């Protein structure tokens, strides 16, 4: 898998969703979704794009197990956090509050794991992170 291409494409999708949400909120005058909009742009667009740049700039081994865990936990975590946040705050289906809360918490936890793995990779694969 080309990690850079994957992260750039995912980032592009989140950028479109975030921009659309911002446009919709500006046009409608309501800011009820501003926290969700901000998280989609920060963890969905900016973090995913930053990860793409990381994999492009530094020669992190493609067979790294940490890298595989990082890619998939980032993808699943961002989706889980943002969708879970949307479910939690908008409550589109009545009677699902417990599910919505768990979805939100699990998504956020998986994303936290992704960032922990990223921090570990910065040290484990530190020899590949250089200005040379």
Report on the architecture of this protein.
Helix 1 runs antiparallel to helix 2 (about 35-55). The protein has one domain. It is mainly alpha-helical. It has four helices and no strands. The radius of gyration is 16 Å and the shape is globular.
Protein topology:
Elements: H1 3-28, H2 34-57, H3 65-90, H4 97-124
Helix pairs in contact: 1-2, 2-3, 3-4
Spell out the key features of this protein.
132 residues; mainly alpha; 79% helix
* Tally of individual helices: 4
Strand count? 0
**General form:** globular
Uncertain runs: none
Sheet bearing the most strands, described?
Answer: none
How far apart are the first and last residues' alpha carbons, in Å?
Answer: 26 Å
Number of domains: 1
The helix-strand sequence is HHHH
Mean pLDDT, all residues? 93
Structure classification:
mainly alpha
The gist of it:
With 132 residues, this protein is an all-alpha fold. Helix content is 79%, strand content 0%.
